[in-house]
Amino acid sequence: MRLLFLALTLGAAPLFAQSHDFTPDTFPVSPCAPANSCQSFSDSEIVSAAFKFYGLQLDMRWIIDHRAAVLKELDAACKRHATCLATPGSTFWFCDDVLAFEAHKVCPKVFPNDDQCKAYVETWLLGVDLRAKELIQTAQKCAGNSPAPQRSKPLEVWMNPEVLPPHFKGKLTFYARDPDTHLPVYAKFTFDNQVVYAPSNPEGLPATIYPFDYTPKFKREPNAVGHTNVVPATVTVTAPNYPTSTFQLPADVPKMIVTMKPNALHGGKNIITIEARDAKTGKPVEARVMLGGDVIGETNTPITLQLNRKAQHPEIWITSLFNIYSDSVVAKAR
């Protein structure tokens, strides 16, 4: 799973008002945390391991000269990794991937553009990964001797991007941390109207720090004028020992610009076109044109409408065929 996070980047913007730090400098270390959870390959092993597992060439002289600088940068990350292993509800792969999340920031900071540094860190992480499963068993057994604390506060949650723009298609990543310790927490995220998978997570579902491909799927809710608006999904957050929480996904709903041509109706035969275009892209929007409760045609296509002498008619409105846009009233009943 080490390769899962090679492309993962920081920069998550907060979902709520306050700023969040996913890997804070200060945090309480668990009494059950291993003394050193960052046990990896020895110097004599790491060169051969790099080639055997990744086909990478590591220079022993580089390791001797620069290893200490790299590991110094990882000191806090290793303490956080050890506490993660001793936290009820954690999995060894989540703790390892949080460590990788931090470790992948080290080389750009201390040895930018140095391929030897990248190869060293990646192989070092593999060594940690191979030992973490055994360490977590001991740490979790120790933690299990005391009742797991039931948290009264929900997790602090945010995501990257901070807000999904209209027509978003891309990577979405959720973050969750304990509101008191500020330590990362493995939380799962489910959508109320969409089944979503996250292949980067060993469990295959959206969870803390695991990016996944996402396209918003909206749902309909009644509005004050008797029609429906499309709104983003509600996301449910669950984690052991924390209260379940929900939030509406911060996503901008696409909007239509709608005009009727001609813009006035008269008694007798009318030929009208309801033009609908996306407010962001300017592209035509395919939607259904309604006269009261009856379908009379499609947007951007001429429609013949026969009215009485007084030009009386029910409300004319349009509705999106694919739940992408909210209903829009074109002409009020007359």
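That was protein one. Protein two is written in the same sequence-then-structure order:
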Amino acid sequence: MNKDLLKSSYHYELPEELIATRPAQNRDESKLLFFNQASGEYKDLSFRDIINLIPEGALLVANQSKVFPCRIFAKKSTGAKAEIFFLSVKPNHDNAYSCMIKSSSRKNIGDIFEYEGIQFTLSSKNTDGTFELTASGLVNSLEEFLYEKGSIPIPPYIRGGVSDEEDKIRYQTVFAKTTGSVAAPTAGLHFTEDVFKELKKRGVDQAFVTLHVGLGTFAPVKVDDLSDHSMHTENYFIDEDNTKIIQEAYQIGRPIIAVGTTTLRALESSFKQLSQGAFLANEMLETSIFLHPGKEVRSIQGLITNFHLPESTLLMLVSALIGREKVLDLYNHAVTKKYRFFSYGDANLILLK
């Protein structure tokens, strides 16, 4: 069987001490591993060096989705502890909120969970293992309540998933705008307003998509044959102004550099329509695109990304660009040079031929 279609082919060894538990002191001081596909060259640099690496006149496209503090630690009316992880701040047609619930006790319809004077009642169970909660006692919206009382949902491999006040600032991009993600589009965490300003001097413009990152981004691949893997679905949209900018870039042949895998998923999902000028701006769309070797990527000329978990769909996505063996070689180089991995880790810039 084609090794590129085997999950086990995407394994690499990573010492635990290389998993970043805090970001670099300053956003743009993380390390940068630069790979130029045309020359085959690797360079070990600082992220600020990206200012001179992005091609002049390129368009940088990033995901402006905003992480919300979706985690609360509640108690059932019985006294049992429960962790509630809200998946959206928008209620459904029954005025209930989708969530995940972690509790040592059974979860039954009608259970009441209390937190900071608010009562959340379990109204239904979903077939995918998630739940619906109705809220009683909210003065304002659930979104406002969570921004005041909730915890930022850092991944479990970062300090056991226990966040603090610093994470509310650092686990968020400086350009975050639209609330909806339960995990940060982490490639964007390295950017500062100063970096954008310096890029602008070289004719590099910005455009934004909005793709709300769901838990499915981190869901493990459970089959060894990638042909049998069902990708999670995520919602995305591109507003009218950004649609025009991206469409014009395609039409005149500007290099497009995606900031992060979520941005690439949105661009690739709508590439045909965007490039032909038929894309409908402001329309909420869904994508379940699964990019891996054997799938052609047409929408970008470069990608800025972090270093991803072994055997993850994100590692497979990067492999769709430059090949699995080259990606594993890059990652082994990063391990040898002691780059920091995952959400708070260092960055990788890949420029395609």
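The chain has eight helices and 17 strands. Keep this in mind for the problem set.
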